Amino acid sequence: MASFTDLAAQLLLLATLFPTLTLCYINPATTSTHQNATKSSAYSSYIVLVQPPPSNAGQGAHHQWHESFLSSSLAGDSSESRLLYSYTEVFNGFAARLTDAELDMVSKKPGFVRAFPDQTLQLMTTHTPEFLGLRNGTGFWSQADYGKGVIIGLLDSGIYAAHASFDDHGVPPPPARWKGSCDAARCNNKLIGAKSLIGAGDDSDDEQGHGTHTSSTAAGNFVTGASYNGVGTGTAAGIAPGAHIAMYKVCVTRECKASAILAGLEEAIKDGVDLLSLSIGGSTSASFDQDPISIGAFSAVSKGILVVCAAGNNGPTQRSVTNEAPWLLTVAASSVDRSFGANIHLGNGKSIDGEALTQTANPSSKLHSLLYSEEWRYCNYEYDSSITGKILVCKDNKSRAQRSKIGSIVGAGAAGVVLFNDGIAGYTTIVADFSSSVVQVTAADGEALTAYIASTGNSSVASLAYNGTQFGVRPAPVVASFSSRGPSSLSPNILKPDILAPGLNILAAWPSKTGHGQGPFNIISGTSMATPHVSGVAALIKGIHPDWSPATIKSAIMTTSDIVNGTGGSILDEQHRKAGVYDTGAGHVNPARAADPGLVYDLSVTDYAGYICWLLGDRGLATIVGNSSLTCAKLPKVEDVQLNYPTITVPLTSTQFTVNRTVTNVGPAGSTFKAKVEVPRSLTVRVVPETMSFSKTGEKKTYSVSVSGHGLGKELYVEGTLSWVSEKHVVRSPIVALVAVAGGDTAPAPSP
């Protein structure tokens, strides 16, 4: 418990670290009587720091101590109605709605330390632009002109055109190459295209919300005062807020017909989009020549249109990744450094951190009995008086029936519910819109909570508290449990997924008429949410480099990605173990670095066609490429390991296995790059040449990588990195060596 001296020292440190904030700290005790007489009677929110309560009692005593500062200071209202939050961990104090005169009275009470006005900071409500290093009016976002002039096509469930995210303030008219049409309720310079491919009589309106959410994540304009149910308040923006949007409605009632997808891709190519974002995927992998996304996307890529797709939501199962074709940019999902904080304060003085999407400003600090039963662990209680006034502890099974049951339990008299993740979800908490008496916690915290109940029996008690939206949560990013994993079952020597991006608990636009969400925004999770983040980044890059090919943009995004989290440690998976390449792909997207990658790995239609010939033969080539002038007899067959991909995956044997890669200099003339190899001792990697010098921009050079292994244990794959390093750039590629097993096949590669 902090002393008065400790609190003063903390405040002094804050003032030193954040000098611009010191002007916001006030101490009404030093204000003159004359000044007090002129104060307004309007309510404002204040944060008040006080000394600890006289005793070392539990959380309830702190809450009562904080209320005591208000009880005799308010005219008419109760202290409970004014107390917003009660703090014991960050410091001792509270937040309350007060007039200036009331604050003056509070400041004269014994134990008062100081107070300062509650600040409204301008945050991105998706939070992901800021998390990805994008800040309004400065840096890379401004240099990229917010993606102006770039057209993002989305194949999805339609769009709610009237949403403020699709206002066109500051967005120029579409470029002359745009040939599309818009049949939405409101079309403008932002929403330049909207059409339904579902069937006659259907319009482009979004009855589900999914397409509205993804569209605004990719390119929604700035919307001030956005929030969901009071959390995440701030300014909403997509990753490329200046870009144009074209929506192709190909899904209805959560189903997307292959015919509609192909029709949407067809229209988008005709209309002249610059890139396509598809948050669509199947539950199983189909051969590329039987997959409508792979087929239609190849046509788009051959015409210079990058196609960004979701990796799927079937994680953490291995080999569950979808949209595996190498011409697609396949996106996995991660967390961000934000939570909707809530606490379970236990009777033993310990506290468990959780999340609550629906929060109460002034929850009761009363301690309630905890109830957990293995028999009723999924909250499948039949309601009776035995649960009245108790906090029920249940395991989350993510079913609609369970969510309905929880609502009934709380509504019928239970004091609350603590819902903990199962072991598979681990540390991935997908927040759900329950009542204000439901807190969600991780699997590890669920174990701790049930262990506390088992050890204390009928004397186990707790109270719930809410902390609002919190930022700077660590570790982040973390791979979400649902994010599908590699390796690819169709082409295991090409690393999939390609890239990791925010996809857990993402706030973005939502059509209010769906009946879901609170107001015009909603929070949902999935690789569907991760995909438009990368689409937005690609739009920013396309705006800066309009002549770059889809493969060049893809390479730039992959080779500049992050492989460390916000603390400088390795990116973790949902169990907080070190994530492997089949969880993260090349790494976590980093927009600013992707715009200036130094070197890129390009691929032409002919390169892809040679790969298709090797994999599927003439029939596959005819289906996917559809170019009668290209036949497998005329094309060199390109094995998957030799495809000029930005990642390197090879079979691992005791003898050297060599692959070649060709890089193109997109940095300054006169650049020199040196190879830096980081691999475990069980691998031997040789790169020839070890140094590459480029005399001009656009120059190409080829190098070889030879990999061999020795002293291997039971691991199924070994990973490392190859980086080409110059004075200004680091161009990084994962090296994945797959251990050969009986029969000559390569083993599946689960996360380590």
Description:
There is one protein chain. With 752 residues, this protein is of the alpha/beta class. It has five domains: 4-117, Alpha-Beta Plaits; 128-336 and 477-597, Rossmann fold, CATH 3.40.50; 343-464, Glucose Oxidase, domain 1, CATH 3.50.30; 604-643, no CATH class; 644-752, Sandwich (Immunoglobulin-like). Helices cover 23% and strands 25% of the residues. A hairpin with a 4-residue loop joins strand 15 (338-346) and strand 16 (351-355). Helix 8 (210-219) packs parallel to helix 13 (527-544) and helix 9 runs parallel beside helix 10. The two termini are 41 Å apart. Residues 1-24 form the signal peptide.
Q: Assign the structural class, choosing from mainly alpha, mainly beta, alpha/beta, alpha+beta, or little secondary structure.
A: alpha/beta
What name does CATH use for the topology of the largest domain? Rossmann fold
**Sequence of strands across the biggest β-sheet:** 6-9-5-12-13-14-22
Mean pLDDT: 86
Shape: globular
Report the C-alpha radius of gyration, rounded: 28 Å
Annotation field: number of helices:
17
Query: Any low-confidence stretches, pLDDT <50, length ≥5?
Result: 1-40, 119-125, 741-752
Give the end-to-end Cα distance, rounded to a whole number of Å: 41 Å
Strands, total number: 33
User: What is the C-level CATH assignment of the largest domain?
Assistant: Alpha Beta
How would you summarize what this structure contains?
The protein has 17 helices and 33 strands.
How are the elements arranged and paired?
Elements: H1 4-17, H2 33-37, E1 44-50, H3 59-71, H4 79-82, E2 83-87, E3 93-98, H5 100-107, E4 112-117, H6 128-131, H7 139-143, E5 151-156, E6 191-196, H8 210-219, E7 223-228, E8 231-236, E9 244-249, E10 251-252, E11 255-256, H9 258-271, E12 275-278, H10 292-302, E13 306-310, E14 329-334, E15 338-346, E16 351-355, E17 368-371, E18 391-395, H11 400-411, E19 416-420, E20 438-441, H12 443-456, E21 461-471, E22 499-502, E23 506-509, E24 521-524, H13 527-544, H14 550-559, H15 581-584, H16 591-594, E25 599-600, H17 605-624, E26 648-652, E27 657-665, E28 671-678, E29 683-688, E30 691-694, E31 700-709, E32 717-725, E33 730-739
Parallel strand pairs: 5-9, 5-12, 6-9, 12-13, 13-14, 14-22, 17-18, 18-19, 19-20, 26-33
Antiparallel strand pairs: 1-3, 1-4, 2-3, 7-8, 10-11, 15-16, 15-21, 17-21, 23-24, 25-27, 27-31, 28-30, 28-32, 29-31, 32-33
Helix pairs in contact: 8-13, 9-10
Domain Inhibitor I9: 45-124
Active site: 156, 210, 528
Protein name: Subtilisin-like protease
